[in-house]
Amino acid sequence: MPIIVNLDVMMAKRKMSLNELSEKVDLTLSNLSILKTGKAKAIRFSTLEAICKVLDCQPADILEYREK
C-alpha cells in the first residue's frame, strides 16, 4: 500500500508510549496498534484530529504517500 503510517515516529519524537496515547486519544490499544503497524484500512478524521492534537503535529507528519 502506498500510504505509509509514521505514527511510531511521531510517538518517539514526543517520547509517548502507545498506552499513554491510547488514554489521551480515547482509543483502544488494539485499534492504535493496527494504525501504528500500517494495517488499518481507514481512519476517521476525528481520530486523526485527536492524534494530531495530542502529538502536536500535522496529518502529513503521520501519513505519507509513496509511489510503488
Protein traits:
434 Repressor (Amino-terminal Domain), two-stranded antiparallel sheet, mainly alpha, 5 helices, 68 residues, globular
Your description of this structure?
With 68 residues, the protein is mainly alpha-helical. The chain has one domain (3-62): lambda repressor-like DNA-binding domains (434 Repressor (Amino-terminal Domain)). It has helices at 7-13, 18-25, 29-36, 45-55, 59-62, and strands at residues 3-5, 63-65. The termini are close together.
In short:
This protein is mainly α and 68 residues long. The chain contains five helices and two strands.
Low-confidence regions: none
Number of domains: 1
Assembly state of the chains shown: single chain
Find the count of extended strands (DSSP E, 2+ residues).
Answer: 2
- CATH homologous superfamily descriptor: lambda repressor-like DNA-binding domains
Structural class: mainly alpha
Question: What is the strand and helix layout of this fold?
Answer:
Elements lengths: L2 E3 L1 H7 L4 H8 L3 H8 L8 H11 L3 H4 E3 L3
Antiparallel strand pairs: 1-2
